[in-house]
Design a protein that fits this description.
Order of helices and strands of chain A: EEEEEEEEEEE
Number of helices of chain B: 0
Structural class of chain B: mainly beta
Helix content of chain B: under 10%
Strand content of chain A: over 45%
Number of helices of chain A: 0
Shape of chain B: globular
Largest sheet of chain A: 6 strands, mixed
Distance between the termini of chain A: 41 Å
Helix content of chain A: under 10%
Shape of chain A: globular
Oligomer: heterodimer
Chain lengths: ~110, ~110
């Protein structure tokens, strides 16, 4: 069955460092992948979308890579800030463009 | 409105009661999705509308769950004869068109079944 795995443990890093979150998937051939941020009690907020024919995407302090051979995406936040503390969700989409399949999320805590 | 609006934010019901959850998507958005999110888990897809047409309802857990979007804007998710395992956050999302693009989520309805 399709499986999406994100860092199982919470990630604690110091302010100013680069946070790297992983998303691995099996039994899946996604056409694209998205990353979302979710704060407690709130809905997910879209961050970045990367398609299967793209290797890397950047937006301000955010960078995402997509390796369809390794079946893995890496999500980087450079110069992290305490305000970046949240849960980050990886979501895979198929060619139909309908449903997103989400991972469990990784909790990130950035300490001053 | 500026974003996706869901109501109520919280709903408590007794087992066996019927509930209705409302979603107001961003005006003009063609696509509308419903997801269910259990504590500590990622959202799980329930159903998808393109305008008023329900194109995918493969994620609905049982025939107790029913969704509609009669005029292609507001959507309602109805759960009949609620059970304790229905307790979760129900999220609605909309997107401008179809295909790969950002989904804009509401803050969800937290449903608790006693």
């Amino acid at each position: 069955s399709q499986k999406i795995e994100q860092n199982s443990e919470a990630l604690n890093i110091q302010e100013g460092k680069t946070a790297t979150l992983t998303c691995n998937y099996t039994n899946y051939s996604p056409a694209y992948l998205q990353w979302y941020r979710q704060d407690p009690g709130r809905g997910p907020v879209f961050l970045l979308l990367i398609r299967e024919n793209e290797k890397e995407k950047r937006k301000e302090r955010l960078k995402v890579t997509f390796d369809t051979t390794l079946k893995q995406s890496l999500f980087h936040i450079t110069a992290s800030q305490p305000a970046d503390s949240a849960t980050y969700l990886c979501a895979l989409g198929g060619n139909s463009g309908y449903a997103l399949n989400f991972g469990k999320g990784t909790s990130l805590l950035v300490t001053p | 409105g500026a974003g996706v609006s869901q109501s109520p934010r919280y709903k408590v019901a007794k087992r066996g009661q019927d509930v209705a959850l409302r979603c107001d998507p961003i005006s003009g958005h063609v696509s509308l999705f419903w997801y269910q999110q259990a504590l500590g888990q990622g959202p799980e897809f329930l159903t998808y509308f393109q305008n008023e047409a329900q194109l995918d309802k493969s994620g609905l857990p049982s025939d107790r769950f029913f969704a509609e979007r009669p005029e292609g804007s507001v959507s309602t998710l109805k759960i009949q004869r609620t059970q304790q395992e229905d307790s979760a956050v129900y999220l609605c999302a909309s997107s401008l068109g179809t295909g790969p693009q950002p989904q804009h989520f509401g803050d969800g309805t937290r449903l608790s079944i006693l």
